[in-house]
């Protein structure tokens, strides 16, 4: 059986695929995903999250089993809908980041502080997980 080929059918299918990709990309770009740095030393793990424009009341922290979850909502601070924005690049929306807590961390003593739009989480290690010096006997 012979099928009649037309370039217009392929072009329509290509356009549909391109539109679908850009629609998905747009929805992803509208979500706010805070950047984090994670630093570890012998006594603790520090997690720093960039949360510009958020207050501590807009951020929720939870520890559940061996996961630490950071949640919040960043809302648009547009003055009025009648204003004509030429460009609006600041991302808004709900966010959620989860981090697995290693067994070396004392989850009961996790602390959090927020200053200048940066949330800092301190995850202290259990004493038995910290390195210790061994004295050599003669």
Query: What percent of residues adopt helix (DSSP H or I)?
Result: 10-25%
Strand content: 25-35%
* Sheet of most strands: 4 strands, antiparallel
- Secondary-structure content class: alpha+beta
Instruction: Compute the CA-based radius of gyration.
Output: 24 Å
The H-and-E topology, N to C, reads as HEEEEEEE
Task: List the uncertain runs.
Answer: 25-30
Report strand order across the widest sheet: 1-2-7-6
Tertiary shape: elongated
* Through-space gap between termini: 92 Å
- Oligomeric composition of the shown chains: single chain
Structure characteristics:
three-stranded antiparallel beta sheet, alpha+beta, 1 helix, four-stranded antiparallel beta sheet, elongated, about 140 residues
Layout of helices and strands:
Layout: H1 7-29, E1 36-40, E2 44-50, E3 59-64, E4 67-74, E5 93-100, E6 111-115, E7 118-124
Antiparallel strand pairs: 1-2, 2-7, 3-4, 4-5, 6-7
Question: If you had to describe this structure to a student in words, what would you say it looks like?
Answer:
This protein is α+β, with helices and mostly antiparallel strands and 138 residues long. The protein is built from one helix and seven strands; from the N terminus they run αβββββββ. The strands form two sheets. It has a four-stranded antiparallel sheet, with no helix packed on it. A three-stranded antiparallel sheet has the order 3-4-5, with no helix packed on it. Residues 25-30 have low confidence and may be disordered.
Short account of what is shown:
The protein has 138 residues and is α+β, with helices and mostly antiparallel strands. Helix content is 17%, strand content 33%.
